[in-house]
Each structure stands twice: as structure tokens, then as C-alpha cells.
Design goal:
Chain lengths: ~110, ~110
């Protein structure tokens, strides 16, 4: 079945860049998504990329998509303490998502 | 500006008890979902619905039931609570379209079964 995998933890220093990686198995998705979950809250859409794009930039966020390797990454430039959260990549089907395990980003001051 | 509302926020159940987790959305979304979130396991889909009167099983439906009598409401029922159902439960909704399909999440219900 479809699977989406992420590493569980990432720790960076404030001001550095963070790179969160994701691999997926379904190659038919139209969009791939990144969601952010802050403590005690539900998930919120952070950004997304259309499957025929290689890169998308949105202020401090850069999404890279390598369709050949089925690899998605989220880069956060100038990481701030407010970026500490769990980040989920998601692969979308017809009306269902497959979420990754989530990467907990810890930003050290 | 309510979005997706879940109640209760916290609940402790004894083994064998029953309860209903409530979920309501005011965005007129056709699609609604129930997920459970366990540490290090991501979100697992329990049940989903593509419209009033239509529900279907997700990855982990055992021990749960749902109904969708209106577009707005999608309650999740636990009939005989078990410790394995200790988790954080999220309800979400989305609007079907040809573009991106953003899911909107409630703030979750933290359930402990002892």
C-alpha cells in the first residue's frame, strides 16, 4: 500500500536552516503537502507543491520535489524558535491523504 | 470563524465504557475524516465520509463507528473502550475540487482508557 516516511526528530540552532525530508511510494499524486502541528493543536497546511514542479519557494520555505526518487523536502531558512513544531508531509489520493510519521523540529536558542 | 470544532478536549474512560466524540464543521465541506495520532506513528485514518449518508473505513476502523446524517456533523463512536484506543483523535474536513484539497483540522480530543 501507499507509504510516506519521515525521520522522527531534527534539532537545529536558531538562525540556521532546517531541512526536513520525506519519501513516498505513490507516484500518481497531483499534489504533495506539508502540514505543521504546534503543541496541543491540530494540523495546519503550511505549503504544497504541484507534482509537475521541481521547486516551490514561499518566503522562508522552499519545497523540493524529486519525482524520480520519490523524495520531498522542506527547507526553512533562518529557523526561529516559533518554528518548533511537528511537520508532516502528506501524499494525496482522490479524497484521502496518507500522512507521514511527522518530524519533530526543535529549535535551540 | 469556527472551522472544525471537536468536543470534548479531554476524556478519561474506563475499559468497556462507551463514548461519542463530536465533530462539527461550518464550512459546508463535503468530506470529513477521523484520525488518531499516536507518538511516532503519524496520523492514521479511522473513517471518512464524502457526504451526508456516506461513510467508509480507513486504515484502522476496528472498535469505532461513525455516522453522517448531516453535512455539518460527523460523530465518532467508541462502543467498548480498550487501552489500545488511548490516543489523540482529530477530526478534519475538506472541500472536493480540481485544485489542492486542504484539510482543516479540529484541535483534537485526548482520550485515555484505563
Amino acid at each position: 500500500g501507499e507509504d510516506v516516511e519521515q525521520s522522527l526528530f531534527l534539532s537545529v540552532r536558531e538562525g540556521d536552516s532546517s531541512v526536513i525530508n520525506c519519501t513516498y511510494t505513490d507516484s500518481s499524486s497531483t499534489y504533495l503537502y506539508w502540514y505543521k502541528q504546534e503543541p496541543g493543536a491540530g494540523l495546519q497546511l503550511l505549503t504544497y507543491i504541484f507534482s509537475n514542479m521541481d521547486m516551490k519557494q514561499d518566503q522562508r520555505l522552499t519545497v523540493l520535489l524529486n519525482k524520480k526518487d520519490k523524495h520531498l523536502s522542506l527547507r526553512i531558512a533562518d529557523t526561529q524558535t516559533g518554528d518548533s513544531a511537528i511537520y508532516f508531509c502528506a501524499d494525496s489520493g482522490t479524497y484521502k491523504y496518507i500522512f507521514g510519521t511527522g518530524t519533530r523540529l526543535k529549535v535551540l536558542a | 470563524n469556527a472551522g472544525v470544532t471537536q468536543t470534548p478536549k479531554f476524556r478519561i474512560l474506563k475499559i468497556g465504557q462507551s463514548m461519542t466524540l463530536q465533530c462539527a464543521q461550518d464550512m459546508n465541506h463535503n468530506y470529513m475524516y477521523w484520525y488518531r495520532q499516536d507518538p511516532g506513528m503519524g496520523l492514521k485514518l479511522i473513517y471518512y465520509s464524502v457526504g451526508a449518508g456516506i461513510t467508509d473505513k480507513g486504515e484502522v476502523p476496528n472498535g469505532y463507528n461513525v455516522s453522517r446524517s448531516t453535512t455539518e456533523d460527523f460523530p465518532l463512536r467508541l462502543e467498548l473502550a480498550a487501552p489500545s484506543q488511548t490516543s489523540v483523535y482529530f477530526c478534519a474536513s475538506s472541500y472536493p475540487g480540481t485544485g489542492i484539497s486542504e484539510q482543516y483540522f479540529g484541535s483534537g480530543t485526548r482520550l485515555t482508557v484505563t
